[in-house]
Amino acid sequence: xxxxxxxxxxxxxxxxxxxxxxxxxxxxxxxxxxxxxxxxxxxxxxxxxxxxxxxxxxxxxxxxxxxxxxxxxxxxxxx
Length: 79
What we know:
mainly alpha; 4 helices; about 0% strand; elongated
């Protein structure tokens, strides 16, 4: 249940160890994961989701510049 006491417990637990998973934190605090996730939202915490990005190659710079020039030319010709 979302109570002030639970919110304070969550905030205190996160200051001690901010990288604890929601599963572990919910079991430690004795609240459901859904309640914990809602409390985290109330406290303005957001989940960390790693994103895999590809690296840019030196040849990509020329292609990006050509594309940007093409789009700019099209926009100036046809508003």
